[in-house]
Design goal:
Layout lengths: L16 H19 L7 H15 L6 H15 L6 H12 L8
Length: 104
């Protein structure tokens, strides 16, 4: 279940629920991609971007602009693979929990 952007840490827990949701979504899509046996041109790009997202999700406070950039790379790489569409949507929803990136 997705949580609102304004929700932070659960009492008694030190993990921001948004980070937990992001970790879960990244892991889920990585498993789905690994199980998807059909080859497609940008698979390596998707795998690299998901690895970057996994690294960002390991941080207590992920870098929001990097989250969004990596999400765009994943979406561009696997956007036409319908079998991965649900996992991609869940990943996008998890990144959206962090709100918009601050403008410089």
């Amino acid at each position: 279940m997705l949580r609102g952007v304004d929700q932070r840490c659960v009492p008694g827990s030190q993990v921001d629920p948004r980070v937990a949701e992001l970790r879960s979504a990244v892991a889920r899509l990585r498993r789905q991609l690994a199980a998807h046996r059909a080859e497609f041109m940008d698979r390596s790009i998707a795998e690299e971007a998901l690895a970057t997202l996994a690294g960002l999700a390991a941080a207590e406070r992920p870098d929001i602009p990097m989250l969004r950039r990596s999400l765009l790379l994943v979406a561009g790489a696997i956007g036409s693979v319908s079998a991965l569409g649900d996992g991609l949507r869940q990943l996008r929803d998890a990144v959206d929990l962090f709100g918009t990136s601050p403008r410089s």
